[in-house]
C-alpha cells in the first residue's frame, strides 16, 4: 500500500474520531453538569450534617450553660450558702452528662472574711466525684480568663480549652457566669463555672458519620483546633499557623472566611489533607466557635467517577464493535473498488484486454465499473484505429519518400557537353516544401542543333498531384523539344494543348524555357506566366530580362507563346528561379521579394553557377530564420563561356 492507509481504514478512523469527539464532548458536558448537581447535593448534605453536628454540640453547651445559669440564679437569691456548695456541685456533676466539673469561685473575702480565695470545685473521676478548693498562691484564679472576662462583661463566657486545675493532663473548656450579692444586684460576688472535658466534646463530634472518610471538627474563634482527627494539632495548631508552616496562603484565606462568615461551603486546599476536599462550616454563637465538616472530593464525586468509569469502559467496547462494523462495511464497499483499481492499473499500463471484475450492485460503484469498462473498450478501439492509422501513415510516408526519389530522378543531375566542345556552366537545385513538390527544372543538350534546352517551372499545387503534373509537363516538354527545338513558343503551345486535355482538376504550370545556340550564344525564350529571369553581362551590368507575357500551361487550349531572342556574349549569365524564392516568408510573414534577389545577384553573378545557386538558397534560408517553408524553391544558374573547357566543368 506504499505506506498509505486504505480507504476502509481511513473511513473507519474518520468515523471513530468524529463519533469519539462527539461522545467525549457530550460526556464532558454531562460530567460537568452532573458534577455541579452532585456538588449542590453534597453542599446540602454537608450543610445538614454540619448543622446536626453543631446542634449536637450546641445542646451540650446549652445544657452546661443552663446548669451554670441555674446555679448562678440560686446564688443570686442567697438560697445556697458557701459552706453548702459541695453537695450542690456534686449533684450538678452527677446529674448532667454534659458537665464533668462544677465550681463556684468567690471574690476576695466574699465567702469568708478570713479567706482571700474560696472556690469549691467538684469534678468527675474514674472512681466518682472528687472535691477540691480552687485558689491559693499557686493558683490565683482572679487572673484567669474564665474569671476575669465574665466578671468584667457581667455575662456568660465560654473559654478556649485549657488544662484542668484538678489534673493538668485533662483538657477542659469552661462556661463561666457571674453571680451577685443577694442584697446588691450590682455587687459581683463570684463566678460559677461548669466544665466539659475535651475528650467528651470530641466524642460527640466524632459520632457524626460523614461518608467513609469525611469528618467533623471544631475550631475556636482564632481557628485553633478544639477537635480534629489529627490529635497532635488540638490546641497546638490553627489554620493560620498551618498556613505559615505549610506555606499555603489558601489556608489563611480559609481561616479568615470561617472567622468572618456564619456558615459557608469552601474548597479545602490540598495541603491540609493531601487531596482535594470540600468544607462546610457553621458558627456556634454561644461560644463563637465554628463546626466544620470536611468531605474529600473523591467520595463527593465518587459515584459520578464510577459512572464515568463504566461509561468509558462501555464506550471503549462500543468503539471496538463500531470499528469492526465500519471496517466490515467499508471493506464491502471498497473491495470492488480495489478490483477496479487493479484493473485500471493494468489498463494504464496498456493491457486493454484485462477484463473488469463483475460488479452487479447497480449502485455508484456498479456505474463506475460500467463506465470504466466502456472507457477500456473505447480506448482499445481507438488504439487499434491509431495503430492502423499510424501504419498507413508510415506506409504513406514511405511511399512519399519513394515518390520524392522518383521525382528527383526526373531532374537532370549534370550537364554533359564534352562532345560539343563548348563551355556552359550550369547548375540547378530544387527544394520541395513537402515530400514531393510541384517545381521543376530541366536542361538537356540538342546535339543535332548544337543547342541547349533549359527551363524552370512551377505547378499551381503541391504534393503528389503537383508532382505528377510536373512529371507529365517535363515529359511532354522534353519529348516535343527533342522533335523540333527551333521554336520554344511552339513547344509551349503543343505542351499546353496536351495539358489541357482531361485537366479536370484545373491544374496549371508556369513555365520559362530557352533554347541556347551554343555556337552564337543566341537564346530564344518563351514564357508561360513565369517570373522574369536575371541576366548578367560580362561587363558587370545585370538586370531583369523582360520577356513577352504568356498564359500559364494547362489553363486554356490553343494559346500562343511569343518568342524573344537574346544574345549572350561570352561570360554572360542567366538566373532562373521560381516564386518560392521571392515569396519566401520569415516569421513575421515578410517576403524575400525581387529587390532582395536582385541585390544578391549583383554580388554573386560573377561566381560559378553552383555557388550562385547555393548562395541564393542560403540567403533565402537565412531570411526565413526557421520559418516553415511554404512553397517549393527552384534555382537554375547558367553562364555562357564558349571555348572555355574549364567553364563547362
Strand count, sense and barrel status of the largest sheet are:
7 strands, antiparallel
Instruction: Indicate the overall shape.
Output: rod-shaped
Q: Could you name the ranges where pLDDT drops below 50 across 5 or more consecutive residues?
A: none
Strand portion: 15-25%
Describe this structure in words.
This protein is of the alpha+beta class and 649 residues long. It is 45% helix and 22% strand. The strands form four sheets. Strands 1, 2, 3, 4, 5, 6 and 7 form a seven-stranded antiparallel β-sheet that branches. A hairpin with a 5-residue loop joins strand 18 and strand 19 (542-544). Helix 11 (463-483) packs across helix 12. The longest helix is centred in the first third of the chain and has 70 residues, at 7-76. The protein is rod-shaped, with a radius of gyration of 68 Å. The chain starts with 6 loop residues before the first helix and ends with a helix. 34% of the residues are buried.
Concise structural overview:
Helix content is 45%, strand content 22%. It has helices at residues 7-76, 85-95, 145-153, 198-206, 239-246, 249-260, 270-273, 297-300, 302-348, 364-410, 463-483, 488-500, 579-582, 593-604, 609-624, 645-648; strands at residues 101-106, 120-125, 128-133, 157-158, 162-163, 171-181, 184-197, 215-219, 225-227, 263-268, 277-284, 289-296, 424-431, 439-446, 451-459, 509-517, 522-528, 534-536, 542-544, 563-567, 573-577, 633-640.
Amino acid at each position: 500500500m506504499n505506506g498509505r492507509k486504505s480507504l476502509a481504514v481511513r473511513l473507519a478512523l474518520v468515523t471513530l474520531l468524529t463519533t469519539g469527539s462527539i461522545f467525549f464532548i457530550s460526556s464532558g458536558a454531562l460530567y460537568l453538569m452532573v458534577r455541579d448537581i452532585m456538588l449542590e447535593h453534597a453542599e446540602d448534605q454537608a450543610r445538614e450534617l454540619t448543622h446536626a453536628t453543631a446542634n449536637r454540640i450546641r445542646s451540650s453547651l446549652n445544657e452546661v450553660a443552663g446548669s451554670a445559669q441555674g446555679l448562678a440564679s440560686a446564688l443570686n437569691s442567697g438560697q445556697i450558702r458557701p459552706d453548702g456548695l459541695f453537695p450542690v456541685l456534686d449533684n450538678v456533676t452527677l446529674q448532667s452528662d454534659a458537665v464533668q466539673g462544677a465550681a463556684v469561685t468567690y471574690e476576695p473575702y466574699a465567702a469568708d472574711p478570713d479567706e482571700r480565695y474560696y472556690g469549691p470545685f467538684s469534678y468527675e473521676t474514674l472512681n466518682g466525684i472528687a472535691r477540691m478548693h480552687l485558689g491559693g498562691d499557686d493558683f490565683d484564679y482572679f487572673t484567669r480568663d474564665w474569671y476575669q472576662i465574665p466578671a468584667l462583661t457581667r455575662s456568660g463566657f465560654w473559654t478556649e480549652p485549657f488544662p484542668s486545675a484538678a489534673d493538668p493532663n485533662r483538657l477542659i473548656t469552661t462556661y463561666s457566669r457571674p453571680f451577685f450579692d443577694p442584697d446588691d444586684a450590682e455587687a459581683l460576688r463570684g463566678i460559677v463555672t461548669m466544665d466539659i472535658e475535651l475528650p467528651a466534646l470530641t466524642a460527640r463530634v466524632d459520632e457524626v458519620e460523614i461518608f467513609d472518610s469525611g469528618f467533623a471538627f471544631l475550631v475556636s474563634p482564632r481557628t485553633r483546633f478544639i477537635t480534629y482527627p489529627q490529635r497532635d494539632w488540638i490546641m497546638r495548631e490553627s489554620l493560620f499557623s498551618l498556613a505559615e508552616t505549610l506555606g499555603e496562603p489558601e489556608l489563611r484565606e480559609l481561616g479568615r472566611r470561617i472567622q468572618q462568615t456564619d456558615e459557608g461551603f469552601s474548597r479545602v486546599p490540598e495541603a491540609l489533607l493531601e487531596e482535594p476536599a470540600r468544607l462546610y462550616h457553621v458558627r456556634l454563637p454561644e461560644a463563637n466557635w465554628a463546626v466544620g465538616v470536611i468531605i474529600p472530593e473523591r467520595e463527593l464525586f465518587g459515584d459520578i467517577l464510577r459512572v464515568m468509569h463504566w461509561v468509558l469502559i462501555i464506550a471503549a467496547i462500543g468503539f471496538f464493535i463500531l470499528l469492526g462494523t465500519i471496517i466490515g462495511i467499508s471493506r464491502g464497499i471498497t473491495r470492488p473498488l480495489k478490483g477496479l483499481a487493479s484493473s485500471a492499473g493494468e489498463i494504464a499500463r496498456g493491457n486493454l484486454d484485462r477484463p473488469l471484475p463483475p460488479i452487479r450492485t447497480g449502485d455508484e460503484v456498479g456505474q463506475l465499473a460500467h463506465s470504466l469498462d466502456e472507457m477500456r473498450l473505447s480506448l482499445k478501439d481507438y488504439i487499434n484505429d491509431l495503430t492502423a492509422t499510424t501504419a498507413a501513415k508510415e506506409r504513406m510516408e514511405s511511399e512519399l519518400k519513394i515518390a520524392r526519389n522518383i521525382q528527383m530522378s526526373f531532374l537532370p543531375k549534370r550537364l554533359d557537353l564534352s562532345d560539343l566542345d563548348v563551355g556552359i556552366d550550369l547548375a540547378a537545385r530544387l527544394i520541395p516544401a513537402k515530400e514531393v513538390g510541384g517545381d521543376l527544372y530541366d536542361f538537356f543538350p540538342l546535339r543535332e542543333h548544337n543547342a541547349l534546352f533549359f527551363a524552370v517551372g512551377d505547378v499551381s499545387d503541391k504534393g503528389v498531384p503537383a508532382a505528377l503534373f510536373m512529371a507529365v509537363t517535363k515529359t511532354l516538354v522534353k519529348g516535343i523539344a527533342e522533335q523540333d527545338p527551333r521554336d520554344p513558343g511552339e513547344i509551349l503551345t503543343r505542351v499546353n494543348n496536351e495539358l489541357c486535355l482531361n485537366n479536370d482538376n484545373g491544374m496549371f504550370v508556369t513555365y520559362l524555357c530557352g533554347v541556347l545556340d551554343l555556337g552564337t550564344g543566341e537564346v530564344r525564350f518563351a514564357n508561360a506566366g513565369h517570373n522574369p529571369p536575371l541576366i548578367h553581362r560580362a561587363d558587370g551590368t545585370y538586370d531583369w530580362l523582360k520577356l513577352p507575357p504568356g498564359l500559364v500551361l494547362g489553363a486554356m487550349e490553343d494559346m500562343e507563346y511569343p518568342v524573344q531572342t537574346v544574345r549572350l556574349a561570352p561570360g554572360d549569365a542567366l538566373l532562373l528561379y521560381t516564386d518560392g524564392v521571392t515569396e519566401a516568408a520569415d516569421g513575421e510573414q515578410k517576403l524575400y521579394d525581387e529587390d532582395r534577389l536582385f541585390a544578391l545577384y549583383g554580388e554573386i553573378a560573377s561566381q560559378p553557377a553552383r555557388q550562385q545557386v547555393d548562395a541564393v538558397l542560403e540567403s533565402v534560408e537565412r531570411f526565413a530564420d526557421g520559418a516553415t517553408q511554404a512553397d517549393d524553391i527552384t534555382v537554375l544558374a547558367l553562364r555562357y563561356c564558349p571555348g572555355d573547357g574549364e567553364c563547362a566543368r
